[in-house]
Write a structure and sequence with these properties.
single chain, Elongation Factor Tu (Ef-tu), domain 3, Rossmann fold, eight-stranded mixed beta sheet, eight-stranded antiparallel beta sheet
Length: 569
Amino acid sequence: MYIRQPIVAVLGHVDHGKTTLLDYIRGTAVTAKEAGAITQHIGATEVPLDAIIKICGPLLKGKKFKVPGLLFIDTPGHFAFITLRARGGALADLAILVIDINEGIMEQTEESIKILRKYKTPFVVAANKIDAIPGWRRYEGVISQRLAKQNETARKEFDERLYRLIGSLYDHGFSAERYDKIRDFTKNVAVVPISAKTGEGIPELLMILIGLAQRFLEKNLESEERAGKGVVLEVKEERGLGVTIDAIVYDGIIRKGDKIVIGGKDSPFTTSIRALLKPKPLDEIREPSDRFDSVEECRAACGIKIAAPDLEKTFAGAPFKVLENEQEDIKTIRNEMKLDVELQDEGIIIKADAIGSLEALSFLLRNKGIAIRKAEVGDISKRDIMEALTNANPLNRVIIGFNVRLLEENNEDVEVITEKVIYKLIEKFEEWREKKRKEIEEQKRREITYPGMILLLPDYVFRVSKPAIVGVRVLAGEIRTGQKLIRDDGKVVGKIKSIQSEKRSIQVAKQGMEVAIAIEGATVGRQIKPGQTLYVDISQGEIDKLLEMELTPDERDTLEKIIKIKRKW
């Protein structure tokens, strides 16, 4: 039994400094490392304990740790935390939520918070970009010492921004406080003010992470010398190696020559490891030739490149394990690949690049009350389009894809929306849905007569008859050309031949508009009089349909008046 390093995911809104933070940690760790101690893996960065102790300096002086270091998940262009999962939960043991202290919580931050809550993952907030606070100066020391040296304006601005952020976190259901003011880390989220650009606060951030891992996660980090388990970060072709996978091993040991069972696009399959490869240490990785070191084995938790036959069959987020009992292991992997997604007979289709991102997407959509008919990993095919087309509700004839491609041209009445950022994908989907809903509503309005009430404006009689042309104000609902008008005694006075607004012919006039209308069959002074209120004539069949539809309060009120008129008549 040994204590493995915790896996740390870095989340946050685009441009809030996730990559800059990781770049700073990597750069600092390289300068702090013992020879060959730091390895940046494709998809993961290992920072061993001795490098962390050197970066933190006096902060960790005299303290002893069993945790061997930290493994940061780093998959640029992917929302790594949700793309990857292990044992039905998040792959990460800990997370850093990076928030720009000046901008506060944004769309992708909210999305990250929801996912952290779903997986119950402990996290620390890195309140980034303190260097952008007006008047801020860089000083050495912890936050209390640095704050004491700032001028009064910078101190005030910092406090305002920090406590606005803490207030926002409270609104999202988390009690948070500046890390040095927290007594009980189980009840409060630690907020560490940092600048990923200048490095301020990063030693404190690493201190909090290693301290939390040591104090609260030690039991979770116990790993035995058993058959290794892992998850695929990325599938890619390497010159001279063929198709390889970048992976995280989160439990046990894997060795060169091991047979593994791995999740496939269609079903789990087995393959044998030809090579385990680690990139050269960070300061040597820029060398284009001989970029990898071949190793005989690797232990959790680590990032590794695996070369093996048939890896083109797998995908990002797929689980794998060293084979012990083929039948049982295939069953285990198949169960791990089962989606935690509620499907319904009528609903939208979602596609994503990995199981975790598919689950995260469905989780966020479910929170918005969106029904899902089909959820699959992979690109969008013609079959998906034809299946979406069979939905009875036009609002469900849509496919949304996260980080996937549309394989064939879409010539059907199906909307396809793709994006590489989940919150933007959901934003685009909601915009389309609202636009489509309005189109459907408008189509219904064309097919059915909606309630309308108008006032004949005094002194605006332009022609007395054949047809009568009068100025009117639409008091409620709407009027359209071709509709019949009735008085409050139920008598039909004529039909709207045309509607004019500012010398322009229009088909419909809505509540609040003042327009001129031509009424065929009416004569001013006989059937109609200035100052009179008229109503759109609605048949009983249309009244029955309208009673089941969504109407505005004014439309509903007008409909009730028309029903009363009809009953009297």
